[in-house]
Amino acid sequence: MILSGVYRLDKSLSFNNQDVSFSIFCARYTRQQIVGTGRFFINKMLQEKADDLSDDLDLFFNDKGELQVHRIRHGQRLLQGLRKVNYREPAFTALLKSIEKNLVTLVITEDENGKRLNYPKLQADLGPAITALNESRTTHTLCDVILYVSDTKFHCHRAVLAASSPFFATLLLGEFREGKDEKVRLNDVQSHIVSDLLDYFYTGSLNIRNGNVESLLHAASLFQLSSVVTACCRYLSRQLDSDNCFGILHFAEFYSCKSLVEEARAFAIDNFPDTVRTGEFELLSYDQVLFFLTDERCQWCKESVYEAVMKWTKADTTRLEFLPALLRCADLRLMTEDYFKFNVKHEPLIKNDPECLDIIQEVEEDLFQQRTHRLPAEILVQVGGISGSETAGHEPAKVPYMDCLGPWRCSHAILSDLPVSLVSKNCYLNVLAMDDDIYILASMERCQAEDPREMQFWRYVSSADLWLRLPEPLTFHQGQFGFVAAQGRLYAVGTNMAADKAAECYESFSPRNNRWRRIAPVPHTVEKTVMSSCQGKVVVMGYWEGRHENFYVQTYDSDTGTWEHYEVGSFHSGKPQYQSAVIGSKIYLMPYVVARNCMCAFDTENREFERIPMPVHSHIHGGMTAIGGKMVVIGGKDHLNEYTSSVIELLDPEQGEWLDVGRQVEHLRRSHAAVTIRDCGWIHEKLHKVMQKNRKKYARRESFVAGYELPLTDGEYTVPTC
User: GO terms for molecular function, please (predicted)?
Assistant: First the structure.
């Protein structure tokens, strides 16, 4: 583990003034000046592009997880450094001659008159010269300085040290006493670290690992080695995890490693619920906690932010004075009502603080206003999808936003852009709506990433037009899987449209306590699953263990935590995959296979299938949802053509007939989700403005609804005053 404790960093950086070496150095510079100079140097070198040596390093991780560092053109750089050293002692002159002897070859040629010419040529390969130089160190040949570190001594060449490190150049070639002494003692560094750095000076190679990275970065800052600092930061960034990110952050701030500071902060924010659970979070200062809570990158749900605030406050009773300010930063109004009611209101620290009670009262009033400003009409929301032709030479694109269709003619508006991470390639969106908010559980697969599998869980707060990130599931669910809401909980079941009884891919999320928990697996493995929420129960339907003559139905009761299962005869032959929507006790199933001449509805009360006519148009991978007791399908692919359908169709169960009710306004799409939420003030106003604009634009032509209005409301209510 790297830097598991923050206070491991608080160590002394002083020199012993009684030692032979550094006596003059420490007489002129205080401890703070020495450390400050090192920090300033690192900060400057990392900022100035001309002096940044990161591009001159060949860095790669071996099988052991060690970072192997090789300085490109090390021999050439070292030779240039030696020539710049203003040091003309006999030992140095002899050293330089021995190096050049291994570098220069005599080239014999003739001029145009046939006259023989001899001239020296510098070899392109400096390896032999560097090897000879390192051998002279190990054999103590021409060495003119001895470094003492604890009880270990190192024979070196003063000029090589000066050419490799500005620190040694100042110390050994300046006016300091060490510039004339043969013996120089180094304090506050470890002998094995000095040995590693000397190898780097002479060979240009260095191995960075868990056991030396902290001490190596400290020594590199002292000796002003920007390339080593860069490599150490690269290694530490690779080691970031939830347990050590705050320790690495503190370490990077101490040594002014700005790039590593930003990486550690970004990691802590991106993994906020996990990093908060570590003990290091409790050691942060108030200013540091405030920084994380107010950072614009912190898009986590306010339940997770509140839990972080309470964990930090309870770690030290002297922090109670900061609680009101932190609660205001948490913005409790964006919590779910259940979480606020059952967790926040009953917290003893809040109940005993008058200022906190005032905040609670304000939040209660805001939540009440949100409830009362909900409108009776329902709106249809489309989430994501793919737009564009699949013909050769065309590249389909993901639709990066959500839009909504209102209950009046010509009413269509874009609600919100999706979070950027949800529009990436190989990202599968599983979508549902509950309590008028939209939840997306995304499954991501990235071939080039260090961790190729990732899940993200988001909640769109429709009343505030805001995306908030929720804690991730306990298990990775691949691709498309069952994702429904029942009895106030959200359920994630199976993986890749299958439910395996032996797999650990069954869990539920409670907005009331902001936690995932595992549930019992299905009794029987099924494939080509269809998952729905019907009459308060989770229903998983599919074909049992490869058989297609029967359909297996398994229902989960959240009150008892048990599954009930039964078998019914398949309505369609050939094991088609279905998409579904629920009205009352019936689960409507539309097969993807276009050759079917009808769809069906499964009645969960009498356990029978009912024949339902297919839509007039094809809607392969279209959106399907229930709205106002009726079924709507929108978009999808036309099976006869290579383009996406623009048709919107509606089924009234009582009439048993599909009606063509309109066309997509823009961005025809497929593979999208369709959900239903209640209208609210700002959405209603936005739809109303678009409707008025479109009616003027199209005159008597109707954009969204062609000759038919969704009979959900009279459409004449006014926008409430917020």
Answer: ubiquitin-like ligase-substrate adaptor activity
**pLDDT on residue 620:** 87
For residue 607, which phi and psi values (nearest 5 degrees)? 60, 45
DSSP 637: B
Stretch 564-592: mean pLDDT:
90
Please answer whether residues 529 and 499 qualify as being in contact, where contact means their C-beta atoms are separated by less than 8 angstroms.
yes
Phi, psi of 375 (to 5 degrees): -105, 155
Q: 271-372: which CATH topology?
A: 1.25.40
Architecture of the structural domain at 374-698: 6 Propeller (2.120)
pLDDT for 111 beyond 90: no
**Residue 105 identity (one-letter amino acid):** T
Which whole-number Å values give the CA distances from 172 to 152, 228, 495, in the listed order? 19, 21, 66
User: Which of 344, 339, 310, 308 is closest to 461 using CA atoms?
Assistant: 339
Phi, psi of 364 (to 5 degrees): -60, -40
Amino acid sitting at position 505 = C
Q: Which two tokens stand for residue 441?
A: 């559980």
CATH superfamily membership of 6-241: Potassium Channel Kv1.1; Chain A (3.30.710.10)
Distance CA 29, CA 35 (A): 10
In the predicted structure, residue 297 carries a pLDDT above the cut 80 = yes
Give the residue among 25, 27, 16, 17 at the shortest CA–CA distance from 174: 25
* pLDDT above 60: residue 657: yes
- Map residue 486 onto helix, strand or coil: strand
Burial state string for 439-458 with b = 16 or more CB within 10 A and e = fewer than 16: bbbbbbbeeeeeeeeebbbb
What is the identity of the amino acid at 648?
A: I
pTM: 0.82
Q: What angle do CA 453, 297, 46 make, to 5 degrees?
A: 90
Give the distance from CA 15 to its chain's centroid. Answer: 43
